[in-house]
Amino acid sequence: xxxxxxxxxxxxxxxxxxxxxxxxxxxxxxxxxxxxxxxxxxxxxxxxxxxxxxxxxxxxxxxxxxxxxxxxxxxxxxxxxxxxxxxxxxxxxxxxxxxxxxxxxxxxxxxxxxxxxxxxxxxxxxxxxxxxxxxxxxxxxxxxxxxxxxxxxxxxxxxxxxxxxxxxxxxxxxxxxxxxxxxxxxxxxxxxxxxxxxxxxxxxxxxxxxxxxxxxxxxxxxxxxxxxxxxxxxxxxxxxxxxxxxxxxxxxxxxxxxxxxxxxxxxxxxxxxxxxxxxxxxxxxxxxxxxxxxxxxxxxxxxxxxxxxxxxxxxxxxxxxxxxxxxxxxxxxxxxxxxxxxxxxxxxxxxxxxxxxxxxxxxxxxxxxxxxxxxxxxxxxxxxxxxxxxxxxxxxxxxxxxxxxxx
Length: 407
Ligand SMILES: *[C@@H]1O[C@H](CO)[C@@H](O)[C@H](O)[C@H]1NC(C)=O
What we know:
Keywords: Carbohydrate metabolism, Cellulose degradation, Glycosidase, Hydrolase, Polysaccharide degradation, Pyrrolidone carboxylic acid, Signal. By secondary structure, the chain is of the alpha/beta class. The protein is built from ten helices and 15 strands. The strands form four sheets. Strands 4-5-6-9-10-11-12-13 form an eight-stranded parallel β-barrel, surrounded by four helices. A three-stranded antiparallel sheet has the order 1-3-2. It has a two-stranded antiparallel ribbon with strand order 7-8. 2-acetamido-2-deoxy-beta-D-glucopyranose binds next to loops.
């Protein structure tokens, strides 16, 4: 190991300039390595802390840490329309079998009874918006919390009132706000439309939410978080269709709606598991697919579980490149609503590479949303919660390196 390291150093020292390969880092505050990219790539700034060699980019002079992203041959503006963070807490207590212990909800809403010293989700979003130029927040909530565990019943006015405080705080930043029902396609262990709740019971909660937010153009309807082990993807697509129709008919005629596939919304599985094909049949009442957006998740750890602090992949070759091709061929777009990693060097490298790829393919990727801030704290492996208050906030290293934007 030591011997080959010395050899490499010698070789580098003998050459004129070491060139970074495609997707490698080439600049940013604290970067002391090469700022030159191999032929075919140019150094593009993601933010003040991270610049990266992006293939197919038209080079515009010498890259600096403050260079603005340039358009790339991938397609789009060179920057996704949306970037943001999940503000979690109203989903705490929800398990992957669709049980939600509503006592464990930990709202990121300050001064909310029965708690009076909750995490300040409003302050976090204000900071992310003003200091990091983020413009989308996903607000997970348990289905049981919304209806006070009354399946198919009316929205609980008390609980909805608390959740709506978070939604209104989000809207007041000017950002888009994803209402995400965080139930894994289930209620208490059974799958919607496939042995569990009826489509009508699921449609009921969405009809009420869409009615409430019909006039809010920046509310985004996140139909369901991470369906998994769903037996029939075509039956699931029919459930999603029923919800889309209900949301539109409730008066939310044009807002974004997420289409979530099977396999935990894995961006690497969405084509192969049939989710993309099945969900591509879902339409608005007028037959179009306008603002019906494929919603994918992807972590960068060894098993795509988002539980490890070290990252091992940038997900480009196995997930985001093939999906970009499929989206272009089918005239569709996707958003990545969960991604992230530990506050480690490996995650900074790979997450920044992944996000650079999304930015370079902004014609088909609408954005990315990190997981997660809100009620998480520094004990959480994937913590993205900034610390501070008022006008003084400090981001976690991974947010600073990869998710924050310089303008
Ligand atoms: C529900 O959450 C509360 C608060 O975290 C906890 O005390 C309680 O044991 C949980 N109940 C179950 C059944 O897990």
